[in-house]
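Cont'd.
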Amino acid sequence: MNAELLRLAAATLVGGILYVAWPWMAPADDLFRSTIAVVPAVAAALGWLGRDAARRSGRSPWRASWLEWALLLATLFSLPFRHGLGWSMDDGPWAAALALALGAAVRRRLLDLRPLLGNGGGAASRAVPIQFFLLPLIVYSAIQPWALATRPPDGDEPYNLLLAHSLAFDLDTDLRNQYEDGDSLRFMDRRLEPQAGDPVARDGSQQSRHSALLPAVIAIPYLVAGRVGAATLMALLSAALAWQCLRLARRVYRAPGSTETGPFLAWAVLAFLPPLLLYAHQIWVEVPAALVVALALDLILGAQPEKSHTRLQRRRDLLLAALLAILPLLKLRFLFLSVGLLLVALGRFRHGDRRLVRLALPGVAVTAALTGLWWWRYGNPLKLYTRGELSTLTGPPWHYIRGFLGLFYDCAFGLFATAPLWALLLPGIFWLMRSPAGRRLAGGLALCSLPYLLAVVPRLEWYGGWSPPFRYAVALLPVLMLLLSKALSERRLDGLRLLVVLLGVPTLLLTLLWVVSPPWTYNLADGYSDLLQLAGGLLAADVGRFFPSLVRPRIATWIWIAASLVLVPVAGLASARAQTRRWAGTVGFCLLLAFFTLLPLLTHRVPTGRVEVEDQWVEKRGGVRHPGPWRQRRPEAAGGWLIGRGHQMVVRAVPGGPRVRAEIRLMRFGLGADTLHADLLLPDGRRQTVGSWKASEEGEWRNLDLGPVDWPAGASLVLYHPGRYRETQAGLVVDWIDFRWLASEG
Amino acid sequence: MTVDLSPQDQDSPVDSSRSENRRRPDRANSLIAQLMEPLLPFLLAAGVAAATLALAVSQADPTESAEGRMLALLAAGVMVCASFAARLAGGKWMTGPAAGSMLVVVCLWMLHQGPGRGGAVVMVLVVTLAAGLARSWNHLETGPPESRRSAYLVWTTALTIGLQLLVRPDLFLPARVSAGGAFGRLWLEGILLPAVFGVGLGLLAAAMGRSALLVGIAILLAGPGVDVPRLTILGPALILALGAVGLWRRSGFDARWPVGERLEVLTARCLLLLGAVVVVASSYPWLRPSPWTSARELLTPPRVATVAHARGIVVLSAATPTWHHELAEPVAASEVTVDSSLVHGIRATGKPVATVSAWDSTGSLIARWPLVGGDDTAEWAAARNDLQNLEGFRAPAPWSRWVPPGGGFFANRYRTSFRISGSREFAELEVRLESDGESAPWELHLARLELRR
């Protein structure tokens, strides 16, 4: 132990020296400076973990090959001097190399830790060793410096940090002086302004719309180490969440005579893949809420109704009651999580048991106290929400469908798009329903989740607003992990092996991209994601139309949903002969390559239908996105592109016939340009005018008809306003263009 | 509340009949597996080529498309070699080449055209090939003697062909009219010649052991790439060297001073690492003719204080002759490095094509340097056949290359540096195009500007 501590101390010292010496070797603003400082300590900690696990299990630790060491050292050595190579991108490949090295190390440590779980069986073997907390913590600590250096605080983060700043330095929640003094410059480059709707108390103090509990928790780490300290605490909470979820899964799933690989693999997916990996270094309330849910579920599912009057059980009840009360303090909408958990407890405990009253009372009291406090301070028991806004809780059925499916399938915000491996939930649910105990568990999990989901999915911003993906459902990760455990326990089935490759490889690639470039995890609600926009720009064609979106539903959305609901469970159940079982991985890999082959080809083969002109693949000269990207409740507005004098856009449509009729949705905005012209840009550079329209009414959307006109091969449609180019905020807003291809005359 | 994860939970009446099926002998599937197994490397390469070519042909930017095609074909060729090498190790050998393939696909999708993308793809290919060779190194001496020779032959041929393809990416450029055509050049220079050397090396190594193989690899890396002139030197050199090894063993000195397995392994690893660096220096985008010198350059890189311009190409022309940049903060530096190339610059040899100026934070001029055609920069198409022997035209050694659309040659980008004595605080930089009134104006394409300590 002493030797290990010495090693760790020496490694930390080396990291510190590197941090101090870095500006001598590389530019002072080099993004890798903070990352390189933690690499030695991370390597030492991972080595310690491996040796310790090997000692406990009586096996040899998995060691890195000399080639892996050589690659890691070559990457580290070349890191400060990479600029001298003259590449146009300086950071991505090196960040990816370090991420791959970390991934390889995590894989080895997982193999070392697996024997520590032992065999399922008696209660004595159900404890989860602390190593299953330490490994995720080490990984989050390794990624954190890079994530913090490449992505400023965003979404709710800066406001949570500002509130923490106020609590740490002023011991109050009045942010007026924080805004005036520009205290946000301590952790970001931007001076924060109050958010729209931030409440002002009766005493004139400027309060935050966000709850103060999480900022209070991070206040002390923030006081000590600023944003880094706060992020470190979040990493601790995330690692604790993963650890607790594994404990929960081991409590729920009993596997005598087997080695419980299902919960172990599910823990690995939860801890080291999105979405938790993305949130581990960010200041969002969802992760603490998920931890509270995991603890509460553990207490509920572990309760023994026949021993309800023992002292131990009463203490557990007290803890459970406290957890249920904490949730609404984190965020008011988490009250519905408390309700769900209480309903599960209702199903577990004896009917009419007074325990339920004891469990519910603190939560009710806290909620009543909160609303009372808000009424007294702000004159509004809901702090800043109105009754009209609450009506979203009872929206039309489509809103529920859209929000629920969007949480899982949307290309920008959905769980399956962020980490496709989570699609194994689908066969997991199926297998769970096959036994009576499984059905009871599934029912309990549904009961736990339903009230909360019914509250959040019908919202206009069901996707969580400006945030990483799957935000609102992160609090339900313990529930999802239990379902995934069931799926991964069936891994010996061949179809599941194929799915693991088919879904796992894209998951690993996407995880690599999210780790290397954290800003890509934040997307606008425009029906695409940053990745799809990048792909569209690369191909100068509409790639996103082949991927599902519930922000802007299209045919591809329903195809993907139907296919996944049918194919994934069917594939997961498939079984094959022993000889072909070994080909499952190869077939999965071939399918992946086929996907990458077909995607660009289809993009340029499938005729263009509707074009949303604000998309990146539409070539533009001048103009701006309208409305702006940061407008509140943006999904309510028709997103388009504003064209002024001298501006133009070029649409390279894929033809579906020799003639075309098009419909253009247009609105005049302000007193700028009022005439839209349309030309066909031919391959030889000539232009052929095909239409012009004058918009008279300002602020009214109109649908303009174009054609039918002949569409020569290789032509593009150009929409423009003539005149000398100048920047403007007034002109014509084009929303979309619908192409209808005609086979011949007429 | 607990749920069983036990096997009983999985079985059902349907499953029991499947269990019956599993127990039946599966000769048909075994035959398919035997047929498919040797084809897997080619299938993998075909898949990588398809996935990457589909992207390349679909890209709108012709420069992106041209480079993408070259890299796609290069990746496919090297993956075949890496797969055959890895296959010797058995087990889950396909994991390495599959991972390398996916990384190549990701690089081509995520990185923009330019030295960075090319360099990243080549590094992935080199690592994949090296990993396959390293994994199967220990298997060369295991197994029955009758399969040992074929193992050596596969290993050495995978090495020589893979290495040849990496150092000759020009073989994958768009076809230019020539006697043999593009495919003929690829077959002869890319596969046949290195295969000859590889087979010879493999046969000799199978007879003399892995130590002899190390000698062959060292000779091969002395001048990476195999062509007819080199073959006439490499071949005899290899025979002489291995003959000496054979004599060493026959004379009994080998028993008195045995090489030892550890030394052999250490030598192999060092050769592999050095070889990887040399190959990277010889391959796209650097394509160094003397890779050992360049490898030394790469291993002792400069201390860059800041990169003043690193994204996209700045074009200086008659319409926009000046690029001026103010640094966010003054930077202490002693050297300015400029990466650039000329368009329409054939007649610029010996003439100042641009002026590079620098000022400090007080506005005082630090220095002003001329960028001279033929010495500091030159025509981007200098590698074109018709310019090779053009009288009065010269170009410095290129720093990096890129793939022009439709061309059968690599385009050049040049690097030059200007030093000052001591160190100053640089605050502003400017590059201004100069023109020669007599000839057509040239364009300067500015790719990168660095300040170095």
